[in-house]
Amino acid sequence: MKWTNKCNESFLNQKNINNIDNDAKFCIYGAGKLGGDLYKTLKHYDMFFCFIDNNHSIQEKGYKNEAVISENEYFKKEIKYPVIICASDKNTLLIESDLKNRGLIHNKNYYICREFTDKLLPIIAYKFFNETFMSLSQICVTERCTLRCKKCAHGCYNVPITKDDMTLEQVKKSADIFFSKVDYIQEFVLIGGEPLLYKYLTDAVEYIGSKYRNQMSVFSITSNGTITPSKDLLEKCKEYGVLFRISNYSGTISKLELQYEKLRKLFITNNVEFRISRKEHEWMDYGFDYYKRECDNEQLINVFDACGTPCHEIRENKFYYCVMARSVADNLSVNVGKEDYLDFEKLSGDNWRRELLEFIMGYSEKGYLDMCRYCHGAESYEYPIPAAEQL
Which of 76, 94, 77 is CA-nearest to residue 85? Predict the structure, then answer.
């Protein structure tokens, strides 16, 4: 979206906000990992009421030391707080269908977790708590990788193993500037390339964890699992509650199956939280290496708005709306988009929170990123490719 009334855009009055006030409470439907991630954020804003889950065992034990009720119990209550569905894509569809059949209305009586954290909670935090909230941001500590995946969404296959990484001082500066402007974030990620190639990763975890852990619900490292983390790194991850997210490419690279099992045992032994994804068989081809969209600026705004990626990146003072747009432009030497960022050091005055909120919601001077011209955007789903196929 293109700024037409900067720091005074009208989205604060959208319908799905009008029925929420500063005393709002929400029920999390799904007493599992996704629900647990959101739980900490809702507790931060004192907006949590209870968990809903139809698993009798979980109801008896509770979750996160909180009550867990069944869906039927929820509908028996006189006051029915809005529900946020935190489940897998498949289960979300089933739960949503059930809630609709029982009379609940989307974006009024119930919300989908990703929609809630990406588009609604930033507004709630600003409007009622005068805080800046965002769902996801990352520091790309290295562009180097241990794999050479065709169609890598960051273009890392084109990065020589000798390329310089971010210095530790740059990583520290990135975190310092970011958390000086962002009060709370759903998930803050250290990524690559392959972040375990970064020789200062343990130091980065120690620095960020010791200073800013209370401003995040989830602090994570996203890895392809090809490198076994050191004892020092595991200790710091345990100390600061860092989640290891392991992308599962064993469907394409079969030898990784044994490595993932080794990592599973290692994380359990060291009491480090981890999630190894299901085997990834299919990726999307964003088209960065061959595509160029022939269209005018208004059409590019539509492309940008339809995409709405939540994958932001902080790089020293530069806050990029799309981490892939920045990394691909650098790694594939696409000489566009060098100025497509919000300068956190220039955010000042009485309205800086509003300016940042509008940027998070997708507003900018142009209304699009230059790299949108080289990306299939929301249509990337129409271009499936094998996952992690090696060059």
Answer: 94
